[in-house]
Amino acid sequence: MKCKEIQEVLLTDYLDGMMNEQNRREAEAHLSSCVYCKEFMEIAMESTVEPFKNAPKLSLSHEKIWQRIKEEIISEEKTAAGAGFLSELASSFKNIFAVRMALASAIVAVIVVAAVVFLNPVGQNQTVKNTTPDESIQYLASIIDELSSTTTEEEEGYGTEIEKYFL
Amino acid sequence: MSEISGDIVNKAAKGDIKAFESIYREYFEFVANVVLRIVKHTDDAEDVAQEVFMTIYRNLKTFRGESALKTWIYRIAINTAINHAKKLSREFRQILEHGNDKAVAHSPPEDEDAIKNQENKKMIARLLDALNPDQRACIVLRNLEGLSYQEIAENLNIPINTVRSRIKRAREAMMSLSIPRYTLS
Question: Which domain holds residue A30?
Answer without folding.
Answer: 3-52
